[in-house]
Amino acid sequence: xxxxxxxxxxxxxxxxxxxxxxxxxxxxxxxxxxxxxxxxxxxxxxxxxxxxxxxxxxxxxxxxxxxxxxxxxxxxxxxxxxxxxxxxxxxxxxxxxxxxxxxxxxxxxxxxxxxxxxxxxxxxxxxxxxxxxxxxxxxxxxxxxxxxxxxxxxxxxxxxxxxxxxxxxxxxxxxxxxxxxxxxxxxxxxxxxxxxxxxxxxxxxxxxxxxxxxxxxxxxxxxxxxxxxxxxxxxxxxxxxxxxxx
Amino acid sequence: xxxxxxxxxxxxxxxxxxxxxxxxxxxxxxxxxxxxxxxxxxxxxxxxxxxxxxxxxxxxxxxxxxxxxxxxxxxxxxxxxxxxxxxxxxxxxxxxxxxxxx
Lengths: 246, 102
Prior knowledge:
heterodimer, A: about 250 residues, mainly alpha, 2 domains, 11 helices, B: 5 helices
């Protein structure tokens, strides 16, 4: 099956529309999360415009948060770069995985655009689709969700304490609900994925509750768990090639 | 002397973009190693699962509503509901429960 990369193509338009629809819960979650991120930005001395700019240029939750704490602590730029690198390193693995879903016929410039938006959520829904990566699906999801990330950050700087806690609380699980919607259906179908999910849950709980790991940054724990569990699963359950069959 | 705010912002943005763009542009060839392919296949599930649990339980004002969100999320996802509905069911149960808890 050949895929074209013109926006005039019906399938690409449909993919774009589907992306926008799937981007709505992401938008809500982004808005809630970035709102609290804006409070951290304010504490670091940023104004609303600067909060907006950081979120537009980074599109990273924990990564931005770490950056704000570095700014607040008047850290050096080298320290800031290192902290950003460690916190965001999981995106490296996600981009590696995403690159394997990309058709070599896809115009190369799409990679430079998409790269900026490899977030937990946008990666999750893109990798979840069958067949080759469709940039138009991602553009739809990006357009529906990412502006809210920047807007939420700016509003968080302005009015961090106005939004009712109860709403923040409810919004904050949208993110995790989304992750579950991505992870659970394949786990139901495939025993190996089920074991990967369970193993990650267990290791992550150990990392979360054991005082021994209390000082290890959240992002670092995620990377270690991802590498250990995925490597073990790759050895125990080598995955059959689906792309070649299509 | 502390660097200016825009020096920080530029540093954060440059590092973050580099992490994402390097694998997408330099590793653009299809990998043939069975191990690496399998590894990358499992990466999203491991990452998303590790980020979800147990954090979801502590993301809300009460662990009870967090746990309820987890249970509702797992069940609705298991039934094959789409992302939108699963996410909103989780939000809904938290909103509802916290009316009574708080």
